[in-house]
Amino acid sequence: MLIYDLDFSALENKLKEWNEPAYRAKQIWQGLYVHLYSSADEFTNLSKSLREKIAENFSFTNFKIRTYLDSSDKSTRKTLFELPDGNLIEAVLMRYGDPADNPQITASSTERGAKNRRTLCISTQAGCAMGCVFCATGQMGFKRNLSSGEIVAQVIYYAQMLKEKNESVTNVVFMGMGEPFHNYDNSMAAIDRLNDSNGFNFGARRFTVSTVGLVPQIKRFADEKRQVNLAISLHAADDDERLEIMPVNKRYKIDDVIQACKYYIEKTNRRVTFEWALIHGVNDTPEVAQKLASRLKGLLCHVNAIPLNPTQGYDGESTSRERADLFKKTLENAGIPCTIRMRRGIDINAGCGQLAGSQTNSPR
Question: Is 90 an annotated catalytic residue?
Answer without folding.
Answer: yes
